[in-house]
Amino acid sequence: EVQLVESGGGLVQPGGSLRLSCAASGFTFSSYWMHWVRQAPGKGLVWVSRINSDGSSTSYADSVKGRFTISRDNAKNTLYLQMNSLRAEDTAVYYCARSHANKADAFDIWGQGTMVTVSS
Amino acid sequence: SYVLTQPPSVSVAPGKTARITCGGNNIGSKSVHWYQQKPGQAPVLVIYYDSDRPSGIPERFSGSNSGNTATLTISRVEAGDEADYYCQVWDSSSDHQVFGGGTKLTVL
User: Fold this and answer.
1) What is the rounded distance in angstroms from the CA atom of residue A72 to the CA atom of residue A32?
2) Other CB atoms closer than 10 Å to residue A112's CB: what's the count?
3) Distance between CA atoms of residues B1 and B4, nearest Å
4) Is the CB of B5 inside 8 Å of chain A's CB atoms?
5) B33 touches chain A (CB under 8 A)
6) pLDDT tens digits along B28-79
7) Among residues B76, B88, B82, B86, which one has the least CA distance to residue B105?
8) How many degrees, rounded to 5, is the angle at CA A40 between CA A25 and CA A36?
9) Could you read off the pLDDT of A38-77 as tens digits, one per residue?
10) A5, A59, A90, A96: which has the highest count of C-beta atoms within 10 A?
11) Nearest-neighbour CA in chain A from B45: distance (Å)
């Protein structure tokens, strides 16, 4: 079964750090681009970051650039999101999603999400 | 940055047709994807590349894209179609993926 499973969410103080993981199974992880998308409570979907299949190219939303770092370990079939200097407005459910190796492609598989709460 | 505009809500009676729009500057030149999200669940892709349906998505779901508006059409609406729907594109100018604000579909 094709599956993405996020982990690593939790409660963190403003200014703190957190690393999210997304474990992939059921498909050739190294052939796909991967993304992080977040959703604040009661709000819409917001794209956060993208990484290409071999990890050589990344892109970030302006709101997280310089604070978040996306990476992947194809040997471990795992995607990561290192989040530093966290702010209250980063509070959201974070989803990982895959797309084929094309910037215009759709997100065809999503994880179930992991909740990040930034609060003192 | 590129902006996608969706109506906050659309209401439709069971068995009727729902149309959810997604507006953007010359969106007809972009590839539009649509996602369905039910409460407490992850989004699900329902239409990709303007009008293609993934396997497992009913034929009642269709899409179109032209000019400044893309449209998701749901025919013979069922109670189970009640959900939030999001359009999404890739903006080449910013190299960012962009989502619309979402539309809540209510089945009366």
Assistant:
1) 11
2) 14
3) 10
4) no
5) yes
6) 999 999 999 999 999 999 999 999 999 999 999 999 999 999 999 999 999 9
7) B82
8) 30
9) 999 999 999 999 999 999 999 999 999 999 999 999 999 9
10) A96
11) 6
pLDDT at position B29: 96
What's the gap between Cα A8 and its chain centre? 11
On the CB side of A60, CA atoms within 13 Å amount to: 13
Q: Does position A80 have pLDDT exceeding 90, yes or no?
A: yes
- B57 close contact with A: CB closer than 8 A: no
| pLDDT at res. B22 | 98
For A51-60, the CB contacts below 8 A with 24+ separation are A51/A79, A52/A101, A53/A101, A54/A30, A59/B95, A59/B96
Q: Which amino acid is at A25?
A: S
> Are the CB atoms for A120 and A14 separated by under 8 Å?
yes
Residue A101, pLDDT score: 83
